[in-house]
Design goal:
mainly alpha, two-stranded antiparallel ribbon, 2 strands, 8% strand, transmembrane helix, transmembrane, 7TM_GPCR_serpentine_rcpt_Str, (pine wood nematode) hypothetical protein, membrane
């Protein structure tokens, strides 16, 4: 087997099992009520990691930097004949990357809201996610439409 494929398989196995283990620990072993408020954010990060790993398994994307450009190479040979399939796989992968990057400031905004508010609800986190996800969805759709119309 190819060394890159072995490393990808190794990373994907841990990319699914470790977030699931972290979710189990957060749900069952969070002792303090103050820490339990942050557990929602940790669970959201773990779910995003699982979704990102699944898109990585489906697309098998490798990034190559050459001539001051970034090239996305999809190594999943079953997607090659189907243009729409690998385009959707690439867009899903890029979307997960955008959401991963945006999740970092959302965590700080959520922590600030928890610290400054006497009552913090899950709707604050949902609204922050919704705001950023809608922006990324429109951006991804605009890229797809501009490349295919």
């Amino acid at each position: 087997m190819d060394l890159v494929l072995l490393i990808d398989i190794f990373n994907d196995v841990f990319g699914i099992t470790l977030p699931v283990f972290a979710i189990i620990l957060v749900l069952r072993r969070t002792p303090s009520q103050h820490v339990r408020v942050y557990s929602r954010m940790l669970i959201a990060s773990c779910i995003l990691d699982i979704i990102y790993t699944i898109t990585n398994i489906v697309s098998m994307i490798t990034l190559i930097f050459a001539e001051r450009k970034v090239f996305f190479i999809i190594r999943n040979q079953y997607l090659w004949p189907y243009h729409l399939a690998w385009t959707c796989a690439l867009l899903a992968h890029l979307y997960c990357i955008f959401v991963s990057i945006i999740l970092i400031p959302i965590q700080f905004m959520y922590r600030y809201k928890v610290v400054t508010s006497t009552t913090t609800s899950y709707t604050v986190l949902a609204l922050l996610y919704y705001r950023h996800l809608c922006g990324n969805a429109s951006y991804s759709t605009a890229i797809y439409v501009s490349n295919h119309c």
